Amino acid sequence: MSKIQICVFAYNLEHHIEKSVNSIIKNQGNYSADIYIMANGCKDKTAEVAYKIAKKNKKVHVVELSIGDKSNAWNIFTYDYYDHSSIPIFVDGDLELENDAIKNIIDFHLSHPAYNSISSFPFEHGRSSIAWRKELLEKHQFTGNLYLLSQPFISKIISQDVKLPVGLIGDDSMLGYLSATNLEQNSDHPKQRIGVCQSAIFTYEPLAIFSIKDIKLYLRRRVRYSTRYMQQSSIVPNLKVHGLSAMPEDASTISKELLPAIRWKSSNLIFDIIAKHKLSN
């Protein structure tokens, strides 16, 4: 039986983390994973709830981090808690899984060991999720919500001391790039190196269009998406030219000269302006 380690990212998720972790446990099938809840920079009771879960289940471990940063949490799990022999799976702590999602993504990986990473599949909520599913299958995109890295690939990451930049928005985009290139310069082959498991289903709570709270959340997300675009458009071209040695340790050190132009003729305009202003200061 394969050894499994699951990293759960949790930032201010006191109302979601228990349901998320319980859904992970419920959807393992015949596998039994060690689950690491990475409570990063939480200002609410996420860690308190996580410890209660761990008290009831010895396979659940809580790691409290002072910095609220997903990329930093990924680095710490990978370099300090990953045991170098298990199959690692990464999950966002605000999701719930369905229909043996963990079992299915592991089985898919074992049947397709050549893939560096395995993406999951969003539950069919509506038009946007249908379009997302289509793109995943057509382009073999990387999903940061729930994904698996092969043991040889994560070992290669560790042996080459590749870390995600602290403060990077879009760990999924960067890990997708690393997976598709196999850590090699100018070798971008997502269809050969990123698998998509259609039976590894995750659900997420859709935003309510008449909720002030959700409207504010949507606006913050759009700024984050623009920030991700700015950061990735600065870092990845530099990696293609100079290799992984050009990966910044901290995303805040990205040169202003490398930031892309604002997308003036698009719905991203206002959010690009805000993101570029923040990254330039």
UniProtKB/TrEMBL annotation:
Belongs to the glycosyltransferase 2 family. WaaE/KdtX subfamily. PANTHER family: GLYCOSYLTRANSFERASE, POLY-BETA-1,6-N-ACETYL-D-GLUCOSAMINE SYNTHASE. SUPFAM superfamilies: Nucleotide-diphospho-sugar transferases (SSF53448). It comes from Photobacterium sanguinicancri. It comes from the Bacteria. This is Glycosyltransferase 2-like domain-containing protein. Coiled coil: none annotated. Pfam families: Glycos_transf_2. Residues 6-136 form the Glycosyltransferase 2-like domain.
